[in-house]
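We treat protein structure as text, and this decision shapes the records that our systems exchange. The tokens are whole numbers drawn from a learned vocabulary of local backbone shapes. Below, we set out a record of this kind in full and without editing:
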Amino acid sequence: MRITVPEALTASHVKYDGEAGRAWSAGLPALADRYLEEWRLRLDGGPRHGVVSLVLPVVRDDGTKAALKLQPVTDENATEAMGLAAWAGDASVLLLESDPATGTMLLERLEADRSLSAVPDDIEALGILTDLLARLVAHPAPAGMRRLGDIAQAMLDDVDKALTRLTDEHHRHWMTWCASAVAELVHEPGDRLLHWDLHYDNVLAAGREPWLSIDPKPLAGDPGFDLMPALDNRWDDVVASGDVTRTVLRRFDLMVDRLGLDPRRAAGWTLGRVLQNFLWEVEDGTHAESEWMRIQLAVAEAVRHRQ
């Protein structure tokens, strides 16, 4: 039976890639059929999807439950299989098969309906996430991985142009401040294998371990660059605390302590994530009204205390 592509996934691809995205989405049933046959898989439930990928629950010939992940190859995910292979299941979902040409992967089946976001206690959830991150960044990045130094320099190269599009002096101040923090660190970018997107919904319950990370965008760099997703996620918990700065710093300090990081460098690379997100918002033309950017600036104002 051929799969049915969720309309929301097609809409997402059209939003970002226009007709090319529509064409890729239309080709998904044939792509799925190809790997179901080549890797001798059978479907074991309905499809799931994110913004980019389609995930099909499947069963291998030997009865092992797995997940077939289909996605177009982009700069962000081109090294996903390489990173997963390097981790080899240490704190991450296990890679079973991959085809780099199409970005298709066969992964260990995790509990898709139970993410770390469901853990009610914010600090307990953060501790679990940080312990996973410590194991991930203990691995050196393999040769050929994207490098944080290159990404950071590209951000710095874009700052002057972005500043011309900002009229709010508060925004201009923070973009300049974040850029100065990155400029101090760009020549010492680090060599650890980073996840780059380790937020609570990218940690799922598993059978092999209680929790495992998924959906990395791997690169080689300083672990301080990996803190931001845990600082700006579950923002309602931060606001409910009544003291945004204190709560952000509590998260930051917990992660820095458990990871054994230098607080000043970690703060600088966190400001680098703010800069990256700010540049994306400016490029999209949405920064003036963006609640997301207000959250980013609140994090920046907090971690500045650790510089």
